[in-house]
Amino acid sequence: MTSPTTGRLRVDGATLHYEVRGTGPLLLLIPGGTGGAAAYDGVADDLAADYTVASYDPRGLTRSPLDDPEAGQSVARHADDAVRLLDLLSPDAPALVAGCSSGAIVALHLLTTHPERVERVVAHEPPVVEVLPDAAEHRALLARVRDTFRREGLMPAAAVFAAGLRRPGDPVEPPAAAELPPQAAARAERTMADMSYFLGRIVPSFMAYTPDVDRLETLSDRLVLAAGADSRGELPYRPAAFLAERFGTELVHFPGGHVGLTTHPAEFGKTLRAVLSA
C-alpha cells in the first residue's frame, strides 16, 4: 500500500485530517460511520492510478478533533467541510465524489447545495430514511436507540440500532462476522473509540435529515445511487432504491452488503472505477 500525503485543514470548529494519493482529476471519498480516511485504504491505491484520490476523517473522529468536543453535528456542516476540501484540492475544476452510508448523505447534500463543485456523485446506501413512506417507524427506532444509550450505554444502544437495520424477519442475533483482512480488522478495532460519538451525535442528526428530493431529481444525471448486492431489504438499502425508482435511474449494485467497501475492497473498487468512468 502506498503511503499517502497527509495534511491538516482548519475549518469552522474543527481541524480535518486528510490524505491524498495519485494524480489526475480529483476524486473525493467521503467516509461513513467511524471509518475515517482509512476506510478507503483498500481501494485508494488502485484508483490513484487515474485520479487524485483524497479522503479524510470527518470532524469529530480521532484525527479530526472538534474545537468544542460537545458541539452538535449536522449534515450541512459536514458538507461544508467537504466543500472546503474541494476548494483546497481542486479549486478550478469540479470533482468526482463518492460517499458510503453517512458519507453518502453528506455527498447528497453537497450535490444539492454546491452542484458547480461536483461532476458526479456516487452515493452508496445513504440512510436518508425520511424519504421512505414508513419514515415514522424509523424515527421511533432512533428514539429507542437514544433512550437505550441514555439508560444502558453504548453497546446495548448499538445492538438496538443494528437490529433496526436488518431485514424484517432476520434473526435478532446477527450471524457470525465474516473474517476481515488484517488491515480491516485493525481499523475496526481502532474505530471503536469513535462509536460513542457516531451513535450519539452523528446517527440522530444524519438519519433525521431530509434531502431536497426535487433538487436531486433535477441533478440526477450527475448522481449514481448505489447499494450492496447482499443488502436488499435492509434499511440502509431502501432509500437508494426508493430514490432511483422515483428518478427513473439505475440502482447500481456493488459487491457485498452495506460495508462492502470493507469486506470486498477489490471488487468494490473495480465497480466504483467502472461507475466513475461510465
UniProtKB/TrEMBL annotation:
Keyword match Hydrolase: yes
Domain of life: Bacteria
Entries under Pfam families matching the protein: Abhydrolase_1
Example of a GO MF term: hydrolase activity
InterPro entries: AB_hydrolase, AB_hydrolase_1, AB_hydrolase_fold
Assigned keywords, A-Z: Hydrolase
Domain AB hydrolase-1: 25-153
Protein's name in the database: Alpha/beta hydrolase
Species in which this protein is naturally found: Microbispora maris
